[in-house]
Amino acid sequence: MPTRTCKLAALTLVALAASPAFAKKQPKIDYAPTAPVFVPPPPANGAIFQASQGYSALYEGPRARRVGDPLTIVLVERMSAQKDVASKSGRDGNIGLTPPSAGPLSLFNPAEAAASGTQAFKGNGSASQSNSLTGEISVTVAEVYPNGTMLVRGQKQLQLNRGDEFVQVQGIVRIADIDLDNRVPSTRVADARITYTGKGDIQRQSRPGWLQRFFSLVSPF
To answer: How far is residue 88's CA from residue 121's CA, in Å, rounded to a whole number?
Structure first.
C-alpha cells in the first residue's frame, strides 16, 4: 500500500511539473507608459531663438523620436504555413527450388519448395497553420539608441461585460519607418512581442478543468 501511494504521488508531481502553471515563464515586461525625460532649459544667451525640449526640426515633423513620445503601431499580422509529405515504396520477391523427383533426395513435392513475398508501404502527411491580427495600438518610446532606432512598448486594456482583453506590444522601431501620421506597421517592428490575451468568465469557460488537464497529462492514450 505505501508503494502504491508513492507511485501516485510521483505521477502527480510529474504531471504538475509538466503543466503550464509550473512551466518556465518569460521575464515580466513592464508595459507602463514611459514618462518623458525632463531636460532643464539652457541658460538664456541673449538670442531670439531658444531651442527647448519641445522643438523639432522642419524635416522631422510630428514623428516620435524622444523618450516618452507616443506613436501608433498598426497591427497587420498575417502568417500562414503549409507542409505536405508523401512517400511510397514497394518490393516483390520470389524463390523456387526444384528437388529431384527420384532417388533418396526426393523428400517432398516441387510445389512445396516455392516461396514468394510482397511488401508495400504508402504514407501521407500534411500540416497547415494560419493566423491574422489587425488593429491599432498606441505605445510610447522607452529608449532611444544612437543608430536611429527606438525601443517602444505599450498596452491596451479593454474592460468588457464578462471579461477583460489585453493587447501588449514591444519591439524596436526605426525612426525612418514612422510615417507623417506618426504610425508604423507591425511588420516593421524588429524583435516584436505582440500579445493578445484575455481573462474573465468567457476565458475560463473555454479551458478544460484542472482535473481533466491532469488526466490528459498522465493518460497514455
So the answer is: 6
Beta-strand (E) ranges in 97-160? 114-144, 149-159
**Which residues share a beta bridge with 115?**
95
21 conformational bin, left if phi > 0, alpha if psi -120 to 50, beta if neither = alpha
Buried b (16+ CB within 10 A) or exposed e, 102-140: eeeeeeeeeeeeeeeeeeeeeeeeeeeeeeeeeeebbbb
C-alpha cell at 108: 517432398
Q: What are phi and psi of 21, to 5 degrees?
A: -65, -30
User: What SS3 state is found at 112?
Assistant: helix
Taking only the tens place, the pLDDT of each residue in 43-91 is: 767 666 666 555 555 556 678 888 999 999 999 988 888 888 888 888 7
What secondary structure does DSSP assign to 33-100, as a single string? PPPPPP-PPPPP-S-S----TT---TTTTT---STT-EEEEEEEEEEEEEEEEEEEEEEEEEEE----
Per the DSSP assignment, residues forming a β-bridge with 150 are: 144, 173
b/e burial code for range 11-20 (CB count within 10 A of at least 16 → b): eeeebeeeee
Cell of 112: 512445396
pLDDT tens digit sequence for 14-51: 444 444 444 445 567 777 778 887 767 667 676 666 66
Cell of 81: 504555413
Q: How would you classify the pairing of strands 190-200 and 149-159?
A: unpaired
